[in-house]
Amino acid sequence: MAAGYLEILRARHATRLLVGTLVGRLPNATAAIAVVLFVRAEGGTYSLAGALAAVYGVANAVGQPLLGRLVDVYGQPRVQLPAAVAAALATTVFALSGPDPLPLAHASVAAAGLFAPPLEGGLRALWPSVLRREEQVHTAYAMDAVAQEVMFTVGPLLVTLCVSLWSARAALIVLNGVGVLGALCVVLSPPSRAWRSAPREAHWLGALRSPGLLALLAAFLFVGVALGSITVAAVSYADAHGGDAVYGWLMAALGLGALAGGGVYGARRWAGAPERRLRLLVAFLAVCYLPLMLMPGVVAMVALTALAGVFLAPAIACAFVIVDRHAPSGTVTEAFSWLVTTFTVGASVGTGLAGPVVQTGGALWGFAVPGAAGAVSLLVLAATGGVLAAPARGAVVAASSENDPNRAAEPRFSSGDRA
């Protein structure tokens, strides 16, 4: 299973780009918990902490596709590094000034979210210029999805470690400083400096002029809803079965399931069109959410939660391939950033939706939300099958070998090729 991943990591620059991207994304991955802990440490209310975390999330959802479009136009170093520095400076202002005065706190948190660099989309745009074969790019997408689960598991632990060693204020500053170093590691690499987007058609909609991409984004909005709602329903279950420790086990199991599923998915080649494969993966994802409504004892519930996560990373990895196939020429970073934004917005909607549902009907109905959201996602994919089956005209994989003078003799491949 590990052979495919080791082959990717042995490729020149691959490990540097993957690690640098993960480190550079730490401030974004830990922002919500870091902001909440800091506001509470400064004497702020939970309402204020939640509001500031929401401001960051909304600003980040707006900023990712906008910065992604700038990367496609101006290249990675000219956008990624200044954005990382701006986000770190805004976070430092918030950490030094605290939650009072409120206007400054909201403005600095909004700026931090808005300028978070689109390293996630940038890495996926770089893979085709680093790897030799299309199937390697697809394996890299799966490895990327697995690495995300690791980051979102380790990130909160790093925040709590920094808080325990120093303070919540120091955690904000240190993690953002580390994030700048991660971005610097990426943008100084030869693939990042050499990468240029394919020629693009001037259009105000950018990547969103692709019907196939719009269909994919609509489906993944509901995948995000499912994931966001589980986190709320799990809190209600944990409150009745042992408290915070049980909640921690449930969230760890969800991530472990995704790690296992992504690892298996990326370790083999898949025949056939990725659009059909995605429908199957989302169907399994929706079905595996349903057993959570049984709400058995803690041990069995942890196992069911792990099962619920198994098809998440494979579905995300498959979606990355489809983005490649449907992104209009010259918009690949923006297209990947739109997927990140849509998924994040969906998770926020799911969190907000599950709260009243749990309040009214308890954890049982809270766990019904992810199953229903998964079913809606599947319906969207089924209804738009014709659109997804025809890749956007002019869609290409993010970069060709001509972007790297050291790779000029290597074959080019198009995202229109079958997976």
Automatic annotation (TrEMBL):
Compositional bias segments (type: Basic and acidic residues): 404-419
Any Pfam family the entry gives: MFS_1
Bilayer-spanning residue ranges: 17-39, 45-67, 79-98, 172-191, 212-234, 246-266, 278-295, 301-323, 335-358, 364-390
Annotated stretches, region: Disordered: 400-419
Keywords linked to the UniProt accession: Membrane, Transmembrane, Transmembrane helix
PANTHER family per the UniProt record, alphabetical: MAJOR FACILITATOR SUPERFAMILY (MFS) PROFILE DOMAIN-CONTAINING PROTEIN, PTHR23542
Name recorded for this polypeptide: MFS transporter
Organism of derivation: Streptomyces actuosus
